[in-house]
Amino acid sequence: MYSLLVTSALKSHPTYKRISQRLHNCSIKLDDYIGSDLNVYESTLDGITFKLKSPKSNVMDFEKSLTLARKYRNPAFRSKKLNDEHWPFMMSLAATNGLGFREIQYPFLSDNDLTAKAMNNGKTLNIAKLDHSFGAQFGDTIISMNSHSLHCAIDYSGEHCGIHIDETGFVIGGFNGDVVLNPELIRHTLIELLWKDKLKVPKGIELVTPSASNYYDRFGLRADFSILNKSTISAEQSCSVHSGLGCAVTMSISGMF
């Protein structure tokens, strides 16, 4: 795990509340399934772990609830299926113990107003948000996805279940009723799985990978240093992947002075 355990008021902590709310938006009441051994972590990337109330029956009930959950009349989650030919998605769940479910993102565009504000109105409904530049013009504007995604793991015995929020949602609803994986899978694999979970690199040191935030064009390293808990100095060394802009070192200072 990448963060510390919460020691009191577990269900009042932002991590638990965010996960519970996202499930509630899909008509799933998390409290109906949590039995004992609830652990809540400071980071939503680590999320929560718990034991089901009635392990033998709740495994099937929880699986059914996630399978039937809907967003805009479309499936809210995608799970690994028997004889599944979607091998990229299968690989994304390779490290999941038990039954794995990933939340599906559906890009949303208002029927009434093509502005960034209108497109981002659906944040409480787990809608993948579009960047502000999209509201300015159509032409050469690059649309970037800014989304988070629930990842649920249900142990077959019901004794060890976990739910967390991936910082990069990469499972997108497709036109054929199935899902596609966008390039954010690269960042998710390198940073969230390898860099943070497996290597457990200390906070403040980040791997810069190609992603929507840098138009899939930078790779390098970033470090953040706190000064007197009031300001932060950031330093980044990164290189262009395909645009030919070369390598650059940037530094920035933010905070209260």
Key terms for this structure?
single chain; 257 residues; alpha+beta; six-stranded antiparallel beta sheet; four-stranded antiparallel beta sheet; 5 helices; 16 strands; globular
Layout: helices, strands, pairs:
Blueprint lengths: L13 H11 L9 E7 L7 E5 L2 H14 L1 E2 L2 E2 L1 E3 L7 H6 L6 E5 L12 H4 L9 E2 L14 E2 L2 E6 L6 E6 L4 E3 L5 E3 L2 H15 L6 E4 L9 E10 L3 E10 L6 E9 L2
Antiparallel strand pairs: 1-2, 2-10, 3-4, 5-6, 6-9, 7-8, 9-10, 11-12, 13-14, 14-15, 15-16
Task: Give your account of this protein's structure.
The chain folds into 2 domains: 10-105 and 147-182, no CATH class; 202-257. A hairpin with a 6-residue loop joins strand 15 (231-240) and strand 16. It is an alpha+beta fold and 257 residues long. It has 5 helices and 16 strands. The protein has helices spanning 14-24, 55-68, 87-92, 116-119, 184-198, and strands at 34-40, 48-52, 70-71, 74-75, 77-79, 99-103, 129-130, 145-146, 149-154, 161-166, 171-173, 179-181, 205-208, 218-227, 231-240, 247-255. The chain is globular, with a radius of gyration of 20 Å. Residues 110-114 and 132-146 have low confidence and may be disordered. The chain has a 6-stranded antiparallel β-sheet with strand order 1-2-10-9-6-5, with helices on one face. Strands 13-14-15-16 form a 4-stranded antiparallel β-sheet. The protein has a two-stranded antiparallel ribbon with strand order 3-4. The longest helix has 15 residues, at 184-198.
